[in-house]
Amino acid sequence: MSRPLSYETIVKAHEGDPEAVNAVLSHYAGYICYFSKVHGQVNGEVEDYVKQQLIAALFKFRFDR
Q: In this predicted model, which residue has the larger pLDDT, 54 or 63?
């Protein structure tokens, strides 16, 4: 099991730091690949869509709750 992302990394990714966003994408690469499969093969368009949705979620993340 991989180590969880640090709070600082998530905050930086939320603020738009490209290295932090890449760290988040790298951390979830296995999940992205798994959920991007169509008929047993990784579909590039689906993979891009999943990445876009993850990045969009990073910017919507709220720290006040």
A: 54
User: Which whole number is the average pLDDT over 41-48?
Assistant: 95
- CA angle 34–36–42, rounded 5-degree value: 90
Q: How far apart are CA 34 and CA 17, in angstroms?
A: 26
* 37 secondary structure, DSSP code: E
pLDDT greater than 90 at residue 43: yes
CA dihedral 55, 6, 28, 11 (to 10 degrees): 0
Burial 5-44 (b: 16+ CB within 10 A, else e): eeeebbebbbeeeeebbebbbeebeeebeeebeeeeeeee
